[in-house]
């Protein structure tokens, strides 16, 4: 006959075993849930990564084929406007100069407001606010196209001003060739975008050697001779790790940016 003490011990043991089974089942469920979440995140990261890694790798817009390398990085953070585009506050027929005081030397370029009024207006607005001060030129491409990309406050290719501006002056570089591309001459300054029309923000690229690209990137500036030499030197130093597309080995920081008329 089972004593009351033995019965209590048996019940306690059964209760403990039930608790252990519940804990084990909870752990299995959590593991499965985490695996699903991780898989979902992997898909998101992969999709997001494709936005950068395949920039210029497919459709000749912000994607190319692998042999032709990448176009300027798309800027997903700028694809949705959260603040309004600044009101027009420049002389839409005037000429403006943007001066970048970088730790590699001065880079200046002229901007024609008659051809790209909203782009110039946006850049003056941002420069006056100190938006570009302390930012890094986060991306250099040394094969296929030859550009140094700047203007991202985050320094990773995803930042922007919180609004977008429309494409302008896209026919300035002539009729596209059979491959759908035009030549962006050395010294050109043009807008980066998300790969979609009218999706520019604050990121721009400096062309240091003639580069063939689709006419999808607003050309709005011309670098002066001294500034082009600075960018060429950055290009000659290459990309971190010996790659052909990535952070420049000779890092570039914009210490101060200013826009003036004339």
Indicate the topology.
Layout (H helix, E strand, L loop, with lengths): L3 H50 L41 E8 L2 E8 L4 H12 L6 E2 L2 E5 L1 E6 L31 E3 L3 E4 L12 E4 L3 E3 L5 E5 L1 H13 L7 E2 L6 E9 L1
Antiparallel strand pairs: 1-2, 1-12, 2-10, 3-12, 4-5, 4-11, 5-8, 6-9, 7-8, 7-10
Protein name: Peptidyl-prolyl cis-trans isomerase B (Cyclophilin B)
Pfam family, one: Pro_isomerase
Function: PPIases accelerate the folding of proteins. It catalyzes the cis-trans isomerization of proline imidic peptide bonds in oligopeptides.
Brief synopsis:
With 262 residues, this protein is of the alpha+beta class. It is 29% helix and 23% strand.
Q: Which architecture of the largest domain does the CATH hierarchy give at level 2?
A: Beta Barrel
The CATH class of the largest domain is Mainly Beta
Strand line-up of the largest beta sheet? 3-12-1-2-10-7-8-5-4-11
Radius of gyration: 27 Å
Low-confidence stretches: 33-69
Total number of distinct structural domains:
2
Description:
This protein is an alpha+beta fold and 262 residues long. It has 2 domains: 1-53; 76-261, Cyclophilin, CATH 2.40.100.10. It is 29% helix and 23% strand. The protein is built from 3 helices and 12 strands; from the N terminus they run H-E-E-H-E-E-E-E-E-E-E-E-H-E-E. It has helices at residues 4-53, 117-128, 225-237, and strands at 95-102, 105-112, 135-136, 139-143, 145-150, 182-184, 188-191, 204-207, 211-213, 219-223, 245-246, 253-261. The strands form 2 sheets. It has a 10-stranded antiparallel sheet. A two-stranded antiparallel ribbon has the order 6-9. Strand 4 (139-143) and strand 5 (145-150) form a beta hairpin. The chain is elongated, with a radius of gyration of 27 Å. It starts with a helix and ends with a strand.
């Amino acid at each position: 006959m089972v004593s009351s003490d033995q019965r209590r011990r048996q019940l306690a043991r059964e209760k403990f075993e039930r608790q252990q089974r519940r804990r084990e089942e909870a752990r299995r469920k959590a593991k499965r849930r985490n695996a699903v979440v991780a898989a979902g995140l992997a898909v998101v990261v992969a999709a997001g990564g494709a936005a950068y890694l395949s920039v210029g790798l497919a459709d000749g817009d912000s994607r190319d084929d692998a042999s032709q390398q990448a176009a300027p990085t798309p800027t997903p953070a700028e694809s949705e406007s959260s603040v309004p585009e600044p009101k027009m506050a420049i002389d839409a027929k005037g000429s403006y100069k943007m001066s970048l005081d970088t730790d590699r030397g001065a880079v200046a370029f002229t901007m024609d407001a008659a051809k790209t009024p909203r782009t110039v207006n946006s850049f003056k607005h941002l420069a006056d606010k100190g938006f570009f001060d302390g930012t890094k030129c986060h991306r250099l491409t040394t094969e296929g196209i030859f550009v140094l990309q700047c203007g991202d406050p985050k320094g990773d290719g995803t930042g922007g001003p919180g609004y977008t501006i429309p494409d302008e002056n896209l026919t300035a570089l002539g009729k596209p060739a059979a491959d759908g591309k035009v030549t962006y001459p050395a010294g050109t300054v043009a807008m980066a975008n998300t790969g979609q029309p009218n999706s520019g923000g604050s990121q721009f690229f400096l062309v240091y050697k003639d580069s063939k690209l689709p006419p999808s990137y607003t050309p709005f500036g011309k670098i002066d001779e001294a500034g082009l030499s600075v960018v060429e030197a950055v290009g000659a130093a290459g990309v971190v790790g010996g790659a052909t597309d990535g952070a420049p080995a000779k890092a570039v920081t914009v210490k101060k940016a200013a826009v003036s008329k004339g």
